[in-house]
Amino acid sequence: MNIVQSGRMKAVASTILKDRFSWFLLPWIISGSSFVVNLITAYFANGEITTGGVASLYIYMFAAGIMSVSNTLPFLLGFSVRRSDYFWGTGGVIGLVGVICAAGLSLLSYVESEWLDGWGVGLYFFHLPYVSEGSVAVQFLVYFLLIVFLFYLGFLIACVAKRFGKNGMFILAIAVLAIGTVWSYVMTQQGWWIDLGQWLADRTMLEIAGGTAPLTLLYMALSYALLRRTSV
């Protein structure tokens, strides 16, 4: 990578990051709204409450991956930005956003469990059983890997839609449904669901999150190949 290409990638990232609200504020507004609702609920409830409301942030990152292509690709290509520069510039953005979000989640998990003991009402919104096991550094890595994984899953779906249109998405949906149906049938017939559950139970969250890394790289490679062949 030469200096010129690096400069183009930084320009792409800077352009995308002009929408600071969508990248840095909206995910936390959505998660914060869920947190407030759960905090009020916990105040009037008896005993500890553990909720999965923080999943809203991960869902948002998946949606951001889908929306980023349609929101930024046509605009940037209109300024003669190369597709490779767009791809790596976007990668830099999600890398930065992932680091910030993972750091925020790790900090809130620590504060919630170690300092505030469930915010004084027994609410565990950020510090979850199994997911939040390990040190702060381990939790940070888990959160980061999951955020990047979900973003690129959404990004790949958007690239498929951009490259093949509605028909391509319809075929993809049918294929995923068919594969899922066959897989579920085989798992049920062979009685492998219990084995799968036991296998997952024997893994740490870091091991499972680490297992998403090869899939993330695959999503990135497929997205890159599709972007190079897509029209605006």
Topology:
Elements: H1 3-16, H2 20-44, E1 49-50, H3 55-77, H4 83-115, H5 118-122, E2 123-124, H6 136-190, H7 193-201, H8 205-227
Parallel strand pairs: 1-2
Helix pairs in contact: 1-4, 2-3, 3-6, 4-6, 6-8
Shape: globular
- Uncertain runs are none
How many separate structural domains? 1
DSSP helical segment count: 8
How are the strands of the largest sheet arranged?
1-2
Helical amount: over 70%
Strands, total number: 2
Order of helices and strands: HHEHHHEHHH
Return the structural class: mainly alpha
Question: Per DSSP, what share of the residues sits in E-state strands of 2 or more residues?
Answer: under 5%
pLDDT averaged over residues: 93
Largest sheet: 2 strands, parallel
Keywords: Membrane, Transmembrane, Transmembrane helix
Describe this structure in words.
It is a single chain. The protein is mainly alpha-helical and 232 residues long. It has one domain (3-227). It is 81% helix and 2% strand. The protein has 8 helices and 2 strands; from the N terminus they run H-H-E-H-H-H-E-H-H-H. The protein has helices at 3-16, 20-44, 55-77, 83-115, 118-122, 136-190, 193-201, 205-227; strands at residues 49-50, 123-124. It has a two-stranded parallel sheet. Helix 3 (55-77) packs across helix 6 and helix 4 (83-115) crosses helix 6. The chain is globular, with a radius of gyration of 20 Å. The mean pLDDT is 93.
